[in-house]
């Protein structure tokens, strides 16, 4: 029986959606084009029309993941409020995505840094960092963030936020509430960036 999510003509989209489900359930090791075909009720060779091999599927998943993450980060960066409010919104959007799509995020970064990664994947994989960097640079021009390389500041901020997301996803916050820990982390990061 063909799953309700698959309709003739949109096999590529259905494969990507089912691959995300498979990632959540079994990690990247359990991702198989043959199994995806079985799950969707199509012939085992049908996925090859869209993804000739597993790596091409992973590349497509990474691209789609970065597009989704980047859209969320851009929306947060352009939201209403102070620079601090917008900075916090970007960080919270990242943590939310990381927790909701932990396996996908791992695929995204692993694939982006793969030797054979396409220029398109590398560019789209860097867009989220560019969003954070631009927000910091804008805050510098407004006199709210101290002088320095906004790219370095963005990397440092992401390292803290990503690390916290990994700890939360692995249930390693020693029973502490994520919102409380994230608020404290963002306060510390912002104090390090702010001019006063």
Structure write-up:
It is elongated, with a radius of gyration of 19 Å. Helix 3 (54-77) packs antiparallel against helix 4. The protein has 8 helices and no strands. The chain is mostly helical. The mean pLDDT is 93.
Radius of gyration of CA atoms, rounded to a whole number: 19 Å
Helix content: 55-70%
- Structural category is mainly alpha
Q: How many helices?
A: 8
Q: Uncertain segments of ≥5 residues (pLDDT<50)? A: none
Q: What average pLDDT do the residues reach?
A: 93
Please give a handful of descriptors for the protein shown.
0% strand, elongated, 196 residues, 8 helices, mainly alpha
Topology of this structure?
Layout: H1 11-26, H2 33-40, H3 54-77, H4 83-100, H5 102-112, H6 119-141, H7 150-169, H8 178-193
What's the short version?
The chain has 196 residues and is mostly helical. The chain has helices at residues 11-26, 33-40, 54-77, 83-100, 102-112, 119-141, 150-169, 178-193.
